[in-house]
Specification:
The structure is a single chain. The chain has a single domain, classed as NAD(P)-binding Rossmann-like Domain (Rossmann fold), CATH 3.40.50. It contains 8 helices and 7 strands, in the order E-H-E-H-E-H-E-H-E-H-H-E-H-H-E. The chain is globular. This is Short-chain dehydrogenase.
Length: 289
């Protein structure tokens, strides 16, 4: 494989992932909890992984605060979820478009920005949430294909998206990346995933240093265990699902609408003196940094 090539496994290599929220019995809470106050009025945001989970909650909250939203998602199985998120945004009186494709492809990343600017007129906020994880008890169980795929989806995509977005970003723009509590405390069965989250945190801090003098702020959110389709659809071993999130000090997993306000804070002028920082909605887990 050359540096210019992109690893492209068949989507059905992991047939249960990333999963559809529409098929869950216990659906995550995405609804914004408060009235909007126009903190993102006149803005346009791209939200990757915006079809469900944290991404849906962010799209819903951003639209309530006045933003138009481009919803980026991966698979045909998630189209129903993406259309639902689109209707949520439109019901808030904002515009939305759905963009389906593999963010591990640099060509698709370019298409995302071209279509967003063409159809919504501008770009002000980039929210990188889309990701994947595959539990393995032993490092020996991680195949080369899985390792490449996880890094390509979780961190390569952020490089591709920022590279494509950079010409459209200007003073006052914001980039918010989704890292994870696993970057800080580790996860014995998520070695490759946790490694990508460490890379995302370093990328966030370095990109902030690179762009801060341009008036572009770069920050991140590091959620703890959050109830999203990623986990019951293969992101966690099935035998662990009954205990998911119960090892946090709060004794439960978080909901997407408990995480979305952290993204809103970093996207709007409330955080105008913050760049290169990470927020930690994680149920009370104490971490450094």
């Amino acid at each position: 494989m050359t540096d210019s090539e992109t690893f492209q496994p068949e989507i059905n290599e992991e047939p249960r992932m990333p999963g559809a929220e529409a098929g869950m019995d216990d659906k995550p809470d995405w609804e914004p909890r408060f009235r909007g106050s126009d903190r993102l009025a006149g803005k346009t945001a791209i939200v990757t992984g915006g079809d469900s989970g944290i991404g849906r909650a962010v799209a819903a909250l951003f639209s309530r605060e006045g933003a138009d939203v481009a919803i980026v998602y991966l698979a045909d199985e998630e189209t129903k979820d993406a259309e639902k998120t689109k209707s949520i945004v439109e019901n808030e009186g904002r515009r939305a478009i759905c963009l389906q494709g593999d963010l591990g492809s640099q060509d698709f990343a370019k298409e995302v920005f071209t279509r967003t600017v063409d159809e919504l007129g501008q770009l002000d906020i980039l929210v990188n949430i889309a990701g994947e994880q595959h539990p393995d008890d032993s490092i020996e169980d991680i195949t080369e294909e899985q390792l490449r795929r996880t890094f390509q989806t979780n961190i390569f995509s952020m490089f591709y998206l920022v590279q494509a977005a950079r010409p459209h970003l200007r003073e006052g723009s914001a980039i918010i990346n989704c890292t994870s509590v696993t970057m800080y405390k580790g996860a014995d069965n998520l070695l490759d995933y946790s490694a990508t989250k460490g890379a995302i945190t370093a990328f966030t801090r370095s990109l902030s240093e690179n762009l801060v003098d341009k008036g572009i702020r770069v920050n991140a959110v590091a959620p703890g265990p959050i109830w999203t389709p990623l986990n019951p659809y293969g992101g966690q071993p099935p035998e662990d699902m009954d205990e998911f999130g119960k090892n946090t000090p709060m004794g439960r997993p978080g909901q997407p609408n408990e995480v979305a306000p952290a993204f809103l804070f970093l996207a709007c002028e409330d955080s105008s003196y913050m760049s290169g920082q990470v927020l930690h909605p994680n149920g009370g887990i104490i971490v450094n940094g």
